[in-house]
User: Fold this.
Amino acid sequence: MPGTTELVAIFREIGDLLDLQGVRFKPEAYRRAARSLEALTEDLAGVAARGELRAIPGVGEALAEKIEEYLRTGAVPFLDRIRSEVPPGLLEIMRLPGFGPKTARRLWVELGIEGPGELAAALAAHRLDGLAGFGPRKIALLSAALAQVGGGPKRRPLVDAWRVAEGLLAAIRTGAPVDRVEVAGSLRRRRETVGDLDILATSTRPERVFEVFSALPEVRTVRMRGPTKETVELSDGLQVDLRVVEPAAFGAALQYFTGSKDHNVHLRSRARDRGLKVNEYGVFRGEERVAGATEDDVYAALGLPTIPAEIREDHGEIEAAEAGRLPTLVDAPDVRGLLHVHLERLGGTGGLPDAARAARRLGFEYLGVVVPEADGEVPALPRPSSGAPRIFLGIETARFPTGPPPGADFWVLRPAAGLAVPPASAPGDAAGPLLVAHLAAGVDSGAEPDRLRPWLALAAARPVAFEVTAGAGSEGLDSTFARQAVEAGAQLALGPGDVPVAAWERYRLAVGLARRAWAAPETVLNARPAEELARSWAARRGRG
Ligand code: DGT
Ligand code: CA
Ligand code: CA
Assistant:
């Protein structure tokens, strides 16, 4: 139950943070609640709707309120608050293999160690030797664990970085004297993970912008401040570079700091061939600035159409632009509906009416309501006959279907770990429309290409759609696999992941990942009009 899964992870982290703070009893209460939620066979939103959250073992008043808040908003602000009270490096220490919150807390309280770097220094200086409970064996384990993670700061999942950035941008826009504010860097390219945030602004009063920025509650320390740039560390350890540039150079700066570095290097060599120079201030012919105010101007000065930020990785996009063959990429407004909605996990209390309202708010024409397979029985489902959004029905299964979905429009295959992919020669299409979701659970396409190769063969052999969600990495597909899948002939289905209705806006991140995969609107299943989906699905069910 992944909607619940996120909440379980949140409760576990709260437990750990409270342990780090030396709070007694409460951490175990959060962990106990996390275990109960995990063991829940029924869905959380359903329990909440009946007002029975407090009957879940370990869930008292305070926790019930946090669950309700999560179901309503998709977040638990208490987590952000206590995260800001603990040195972020301590969390990294706590997550080292063989460590836990209690050990991390001792290092903090007894030795003042606040991060992996300091721990490494303390180990090198033998400061742990002789400390009760830190025998030679434990110290050796520590050193090994530390060496493994490199002691450096971790990259964030895209969705986390995006949430933080949205908050910062809004605060800067309302509180600081800025004209334009945009996010650049890997976040703008919608890379699956983000190292640090890069924000660009124009203003006539940069000092004032930096003052406002560094006073934001999220900011923990100012690392560096110059006339045009400030670098800060947020309370969760994320670093942010904020740059203020003049309007005449805004486009050039946006282009430069969006990267990627490889894309920029390629672009610069192209400029040199044309007797031009590109940097973060503009495109220059000798001393003369020939472009800089907008990104369009910068690319035009280099004889290129503007390349979408998501594909600026030097993976052939400059050659494609040169040849006039840049793909038209899918965009958020192309998405006409969501195809993987679990009513029982939606959060809030309203079930289908709530989902329908959210769908209308986001401009969706349809929703694919998905229910788990129930031992061959046809699940009883609401299917409103008129009005928007139109409802399609999906049945979620863990095995490859062998026939059409009984009483429904399509199958959602949620492959169990180790599920063998049928040979490409199997007559799979007779089984009806197939959407493969959660494929990446435990599969990292970068690390394990072999595990995904059979799925590419499947895509080449029969119609299939792979789900791409906002949470690339552990739970969702990354864009590298998505690009291979599209090239193999698969469709993509874009969605927010299994999150409360309030967080459905995150489907936009899935769109970003699809754009990184060079996906055109035609390759996105839920960019098709409802009528067309209905017709093609009915035809394929008929054949089965
Ligand atoms: P990240 O932060 O590791 O997720 O990735 P980026 O791409 O955001 O990298 P970052 O923050 O180091 O720098 C932002 C952009 O600035 C980067 O994508 C390209 C540009 N940039 C930074 N350093 C260099 C450089 O040495 N050469 C070139 N050509 N571009 C650079
Ligand atoms: Ca960055
Ligand atoms: Ca940066």
